[in-house]
Structures are given as C-alpha cells and as structure tokens.
Amino acid sequence: MVERTHTLQAYCSKCPGSSPNAVWLSNLIYFASDVGGNEYAWDPADSIQADPQEYRFYYLPRLHEDQPVVAGDSFWQFVEWVVADVRSWRDPKSLAEDGPDLSFEPTHVRARKVPLKRDVKRWLA
Fold first, then answer.
1. Do residues 29 and 44 lie in contact, with contact meaning Cβ atoms separated by under 8 Å?
2. pLDDT-derived band at 93, boundaries 50, 70, 90
3. How many angstroms from the chain centroid is the CA of residue 55?
4. Cβ density class 40-61: b for 16+ within 10 Å, e for less
5. Which of 50, 52, 56 is nearest to 69 (CA)?
6. Where does residue 13 fall: left (phi above 0), alpha (psi -120 to 50 degrees), or beta otherwise?
7. pLDDT of residue 105
8. How far is CA 80 from CA 25, 31, 66, 77, in A?
9. DSSP per residue, 86-112
10. Which of 30, 82, 86, 94 has its CA 20 to 30 A from that of 69?
C-alpha cells in the first residue's frame, strides 16, 4: 500500500497535466487495485467522522480518474459497495441460491497501554 501510494503520488506530482484533478489525486492514499487497473483510495483530507476516524473512499476507474466515484463514507460502506458491485455481475438465479449478504457487527477494541520498560527488557532478554 505504501509503495503504491508513493508511486501514484509521485506520478501525479510529476505529471500534473495527466488529469484535471492531478493535485487531488496526488494526495490520496491508494490501498487497492483490481485486474482492470482501477484504483481504490481514500482522501486523508476528507474526514467523515472523528471517533472512530473514518474517511471517504473512492473508486478511480482506469483512464477516468478525473471522474472519481464515491464508494463509501466508511470502510464498511466501501466493503458493502464492493459486494454490491461484484454481485451485480452475477446471474440473478445464482444470487438467490447464495443466501444472505454480508453482515457486519463491529467489536470494541481496547485502548492500547504502553508496556513498562522492565517488561520490555524481560521480553527481549
């Protein structure tokens, strides 16, 4: 993810004429792509929610990056968008046989505590 983000950000910065929104594209965090060359990214400047932190996700069709598609206002909405997109390619008869769609039940993650120095020394001994 980091390497892909750096590569695409560098390209957009180096070639600002490559797209009318090259400056915006150069600030995105790219986290996935598909076999068709389409990119998936989020905009760190487009925070939707502070706690927990959520960002808007985008689908960037290859050669049409100047027409980004909002793919969700949270990671879970992005996952739902992908599932709906993939399911749209399939035969309706097979969809009826597959059963229920995804379900999402977030769980609380405890806050991390910084370990004591003496514990770290013991672990590394």
1. yes
2. low
3. 9
4. bbbbeebeeeeeeebbbbbbbe
5. 56
6. alpha
7. 63
8. 23, 16, 23, 5
9. HHHTS-HHHHHHH-----------PPP
10. 94
Residue type, 22: A
pTM value > 0.85: no
Closest CA to 39 of 21, 51, 54: 21
Which residues share a beta bridge with 59? 40, 69
Distance of CA 88 to the CA centre of its chain: 20
Nearest alpha carbon to residue 71 among 61, 59, 62, 60: 59
β partners of residue 30: 41
The string of DSSP codes covering 26-88 is TT-EEEEE-TTS-EEEEEEEEEEEETTEEEEEEEE-TT-TTS-EEEESSHHHHHHHHHHHHHH
Looking at residue 39, its pLDDT comes to 92
Amino acid at 96: A
Cα 77 to Cα 95: distance, rounded to the nearest angstrom:
20
Whether the CB-CB separation of 104 and 83 falls below 8 Å is answered with no
**Mean local confidence (pLDDT), 15-32:** 88
